[in-house]
Amino acid sequence: MEIFGIPHQAFLGQLLLGLVNGAFYAMLSLGLAVIFGLLGVVNFAHGALYMLGAFAAWIMLDKFGINYWFALVLAPLVVGAFGVVIERLLLKHLYKLDPLYGLLLTFGLALIVEGVFRELYGASGQSYPVPELLSGATNLGFMILPNYRAWVVLVSLVVCLGTWFIIERTSLGANLRAGTENAALVQTFGINVPMMVMLTYGAGAALAALAGVLAAPIIQVNPLMGSNLIIVVFAVVVIGGMGSILGSVITGLALGLVEGMTRVFYPEASSIVVFVVMVIVLMVRPAGLFGKEA
User: Fold this and answer.
1) How confident is the model at residue 244 (pLDDT cuts 50, 70, 90)?
2) Is 188 helix (H, G, I), strand (E, B) or coil?
3) C-alpha span between 156 and 160 (Å, rounded)
4) CATH of region 10-121+147-284
């Protein structure tokens, strides 16, 4: 059986690969959108935080024997705490300045973190085993679905939709949005705005780390894994609309599928298709597909 002249197993395999990549794009762009939408910081360190999450899981297993399921909780907490330290020591001094300063600071921080890990572990990758419970694959009849990749897509969807619901549909999210727009007014109601801002950045860092833990069994854990992905993720955020959480999630998943289909029909363009889409969107709608026009 063929689909568009291509064996159906090859077509569906690339579709699945695109969906998995899209899940990572959605998770990472979600954290970026949360931080930019609520704090106004263009967080170029997001790729480094993603890499730290993967390395945290690998170190926990290699040095302490902590398995994947515990690492899935502990690694985001550790990296989220690191994010809190970054926000308190560095970023809090830049909120009233041009966003360019935040971008430059986080870009420099990303280079430092990446350099430290390259010095400690080299540029070669470290393998992380797939947890036994999720090993193997399921025969769906029309294709073989690796269990772990299905798990990645499921977790990504749950986390992304859960984060969107908290920020857009709960009183906590309303307080966060109000606090970043008019901190002085919100503080008169007894809400600790600096604490909320600090925890928001920590939560964004934890989301990046969670994506890193999910990626560890699929790709080699190495210091360059974040820098290789962050440019594509920034393109996803721009297409979806800077600060739009739902836009980042939908766009991340959609562009993963577009990238996967491009590998089927025109493999040479698969590495640039996201940026081509970004250029077209910016020409037609500069605020992004889901962003608000100024």
Assistant:
1) confident
2) coil
3) 6
4) 1.10.3470
